[in-house]
Amino acid sequence: xxLAEAITDALRRSHVRLTTAVPGHGATQTYEAWKRGxxxxxxxxxxxEVAVGMAHGAALLGHRSAVLLKAHGFLKAANxxxxxxxAGTTAGFLFVVxxxxxxxxxxxxxxxxxxxxxxxxPVHRPEASQRLPALRKALRYSESYGLxxxxxxxxxxxxx
Length: 160
Description:
With about 160 residues, the chain is α/β, with parallel strands linked by helices. The protein has a domain at about 1-20 and about 30-40 and about 50-65 and about 130-160. Helix content is about 45%, strand content about 20%. The chain contains 7 helices and 5 strands. Strands 1-2-3-5-4 form a 5-stranded parallel β-sheet, sandwiched between helices. α1 crosses α2 (about 25-35) and α3 packs parallel to α5. It is globular, with a radius of gyration of 14 Å.
């Protein structure tokens, strides 16, 4: 099982009902694994704010949700992310951002942790051995505090 498949499995076992994604290294592989699960799934979104808005709407209605995207996409979605922080959430709501530390699959190397913290978003960047437990913990945290949560993962690890 690849990490992309394991992430999908962890989200499903955590009762995530809706996952949206913007294409990019890490997010694409993970979303393709999600789509193989058989549930009705929206297509890839090519607009980051739409992907965030759809998942936030589900979380407001009480359905756990996740958005899969790269660091650049996270910053492009900052307006919708700020809205989700202002409105809060009633169910677990995750941003799973796939970081490209070498820039091999991106236009540039972009560090988003500082920007996320400035927005007021809770951030978790787990060690390799804690990636899957971090997703479950972040969902619980999101529900406990009524806020979305960001988990940053290494994009290159999805093929492991």
